[in-house]
Design goal:
InterPro entries: aa-tRNA-synt_IIb, aa-tRNA-synth_II, aa-tRNA-synth_II/BPL/LPL, Anticodon-bd, Anticodon-bd_dom_sf, Pro-tRNA-ligase_IIa, Pro-tRNA-ligase_IIa_arc-type, Pro-tRNA_ligase_II_C. GO terms for molecular function: aminoacyl-tRNA deacylase activity; ATP binding; proline-tRNA ligase activity. The chain is of the alpha+beta class. The protein is 32% helix and 23% strand. The chain contains 22 helices and 31 strands. The strands form 7 sheets. An 11-stranded mixed sheet has the order 11-15-16-22-19-18-17-30-31-29-28, sandwiched between helices. Strands 4-2-3-5-8 form a 5-stranded mixed sheet. It has a 5-stranded mixed sheet with strand order 24-23-25-26-27, with helices on both faces. Helix 21 (645-653) links the parallel strand 28 and strand 29.
């Protein structure tokens, strides 16, 4: 507030009309809080401002310029018309991290005063013309959800002009009147329109209705306030934040993994690390920095990462003579040393793995766990004497990735090989496990195991004497063998997939095998008439139950906080997704039983205290199996075989994956993506960047038999002889 006061005083704008009040997290609670205390200052509290921040669509390599819209709280505006008026594209509500990065604000305290001389060059401000010329006083957040400053509309305009921000003063009512009904775009020559698709932008009124319909009636702010199927991006953000999985960091695209989510990653680490050690893989660590010369040695490989590479160019105030990159992946970091260490076929196989983080400076809209600028992963890099040996390992690792999803996370996946277009840059072939998010109908690449062939060993000269070479070639170049290499990686994306697949309108639903707390025990039936001695008996029973379960290897916790009601605790742990809740009250003690409540289906059942540990262990396995079966049945029902192009986009728009007999021609793959692109239909649970995305090949499933014989079938897109059944879909 001190900095704001100084800036306003310099403009001769009085700042004595400041109200301190209770923290507000909605327009309604703000008005209520201000009204309660502002009357003592002797002025009206009927006029309020609203500030909405948008992120316009930009090129992948461009830094976004947020648009800050400031208006009277009762002003109506058409987002599309405003965007067109100021020369911007597809303005969408900015994510919380955008507000934090550019304005150092949240949705609860952002205002015109969040714009300063320091951040103004990075922003565009749009000011309501009716506000800009008004001499009435309006409530404005003063850099806090607990302080409000009253300024005239003209003073707000004067302040914004003083910051140097690009300021657009817009008459919203005039724009709204001029806004024409969206005109359908003509289909491009040679393309087919998606049946039932909307070719123009969704009217702002429809979006507002959809957003309103997505809200959960009577939901408290501490709980999840939107439906998963109604507003998926908002739901996902709320579930991660309120479920205590992560927090935002002050660098856009980077997130803090809190213990609740990091435990999931540790569980994956423990399983996978143990399994790869069984096949002779050893852990190591290479530096995160890589020189430009090394990074650029494999051009096909690095071209796939070039737009995302982050460079260190300074040390203190001095420019580095040679910038160094932060690894986007470690092939080019590690392989010069493989060439040094592998001198003989007796040095093979060399199998190394790293647990580290990598940086890929994507300029797309970041999404926690799915699209982040830094993420945790493991990357294995191995060298072999033969292709057969390399092939065997590729499939073994892919099988382990499948187990991570199905045996730990209860998430079904489809195993297959990537098309030539979608394979790892510079690789020989790529295998993958593909997941599916039913709410959006989009696929998600879960983990990849690549055979690199001899491409990298030729580039980095990783050779050995071929033990099968004829005698006359020994010691000569003809007797040299370039080793066969693999690389494989799995990241914290796994956590995002798990949340999206299993979460519901009440919050997280944690798979038991990766839940930090598997059983939460809550004392119940304690009222005002309960004596201290009776309360102590119940509390002690909860504590003892937790200790007994822990002794049996079950991750249990007794919630003995006495400043929260049982109902609050139920909702709190339900939102965090704990698989089983045990309730213990006076009647349960009499019956020598506890009441169990499952998080996945809300089923309740009494369990005897005798043999409780065994009962809970079995119930946890049952919950895992039921969660997997439910998700698997959903995924299978959304994989549709299609042999006619007329059905392709219709199936895709029904939020399904499409399995077609495919020719495997790259130009055909490009055309499929182009023809199947469409804008989102009204009311859909859309996600950032999803609406305009066409279908791409997700994988060529290994299990071809389930789809029947492909022989004699034609590709539905181009009519060429089909080679294999291939799964297409929109994806993250």
């Amino acid at each position: 507030m001190e900095a704001i006061s100084s800036a306003l005083s310099a403009l001769s704008i009085k700042t004595e009309k400041v109200v301190k009040h209770a923290a507000a997290n909605s327009p309604e609670s703000w008005k209520s809080a201000v009204t309660d205390v502002a009357s003592t200052l002797g002025f009206s509290t009927s006029n309020y401002t609203k500030t909405v921040v948008f992120k316009p669509k930009t090129a992948k390599s461009a830094t976004p310029t947020p648009v800050v819209l400031i208006a009277k709280d009762d002003s109506e505006y058409n987002t599309g018309a405003v965007a067109k008026h100021i020369g911007q594209k597809e303005m969408r509500l900015a994510a919380p991290q955008v507000l934090k990065e550019f304005l150092n604000a949240t949705k609860d305290d952002v205002s015109a005063l969040s714009i300063t001389k320091e951040n103004a060059p990075q922003l565009i401000a749009v000011l309501d013309a009716g506000l800009a010329t008004s001499t009435d006083h309006f409530a404005v957040h003063a850099a806090s959800s607990e302080e409000t400053l009253f300024m005239t509309g003209a003073e707000i305009a004067k302040y914004l002009q003083s910051t140097g921000v690009k300021l657009e003063i817009v008459d919203f009512s005039e724009l709204k009147a001029e806004a024409a009904t969206p005109v359908a775009k003509a289909s491009a020559p040679g393309t087919a329109s998606a049946p039932g698709s909307t070719q123009g932008p969704i009217p702002a009124s429809n979006k507002a209705k959809a957003a309103e319909a997505a809200k959960i009636p009577d939901a408290e702010q501490i709980g999840i306030t939107v439906r998963k199927a109604g507003d998926f991006p908002a739901w996902y953000t709320q579930v991660l934040l309120k479920g205590d999985m992560l927090d935002y960091y002050d660098v856009s695209g980077c997130y803090i993994l809190k213990p609740w989510s990091y435990f999931v990653w540790q569980s994956i680490q423990n399983f996978f690390d143990g399994e790869i050690k069984k096949i002779g893989v050893e852990n190591c660590y290479f530096p995160m920095f890589v020189s430009a010369d090394v990074l650029e040695r494999e051009k096909d490989h690095i071209e796939g990462f070039a737009p995302e590479v982050a460079w260190v160019t300074k040390a203190g105030n001095s420019d580095l003579e040679r910038p160094v990159a932060i690894r986007p992946t470690s092939e080019t970091v590690m392989y010069p040393y493989y060439a040094k260490w592998i001198q003989s076929h007796r040095d093979l196989p060399l199998k190394l793995n790293q647990w580290n983080s990598v940086v890929r400076w994507e300029f797309k809209h970041p999404q926690p766990f799915l699209r982040t600028r830094e993420f945790l992963w493991q990357e294995g890099h191995t060298a072999h004497i033969s292709l057969e040996e390399a092939d065997k390992e590729v499939m073994h690792i892919l099988g382990l990735y499948r187990q991570v999803y199905e045996k730990l996370l209860a998430v079904p996946v489809v195993s297959g090989v990537k098309s030539e277009k979608e394979k790892f840059a510079g690789g020989y072939y790529t295998t993958t496990v593909e997941g599916f998010v039913p709410t959006t109908g989009r696929g998600i690449q879960g983990g990849t195991s690549h055979c690199l062939g001899q491409n990298f060993s030729k580039m980095f000269n990783i050779t050995v004497e071929d033990p099968k070479a004829p005698e006359e070639f020994r010691g000569k170049d003809e007797g040299k063998l370039h080793v066969w290499q693999n690389s494989w990686g799995l990241s914290t994306r796994t956590i995002g997939v798990m949340v999206m697949v299993h979460g519901d309108d009440d919050g997280l639903v944690m798979p038991p095998r990766v839940a930090q707390v598997q059983v939460i025990i809550i004392p119940c039936g304690i009222g005002v008439k309960t004596t201290p001695a009776e309360k102590e008996v119940i509390v002690d029973a909860c504590d003892k139950t937790a200790k007994d379960l822990k002794a049996a290897g079950i991750r249990a916790k007794a919630d003995l906080r006495d400043n929260y009601s049982p109902g609050f605790k139920f909702n709190d742990w339900e939102m965090r997704g704990v698989p089983i809740r045990l309730e213990i009250g006076p009647k349960d003690l009499e019956k020598k039983s506890v009441l169990s409540v499952r998080r996945d289906n809300k089923a309740k059942a009494p369990l005897s205290v005798d043999g409780l540990s065994e009962s809970i262990a079995k119930l946890l396995d049952t919950i895992h199996d039921d969660m997997f079966a439910k998700a698997d049945a959903e995924y299978r029902s959304r994989r549709k075989v299609c042999e006619q192009w007329d059905d392709f986009t219709r199936i895709l728009n029904d939020k399904c994956h499409v399995v077609i007999p495919w020719c495997e021609i790259e130009a055909c793959e490009d055309e499929i993506k182009k023809r199947s692109a469409r804008q989102a239909t009204s009311g859909e649970a859309e996600d950032e960047k999803a609406p305009s995305m066409g279908a791409k090949s997700l994988c060529i499933p290994f299990d071809q038999a389930q789809f029947g014989d492909v022989k004699g079938k034609k590709c539905p897109q181009c009519g060429t002889e089909a080679k294999r059944w291939t799964m297409f879909g929109r994806s993250y």
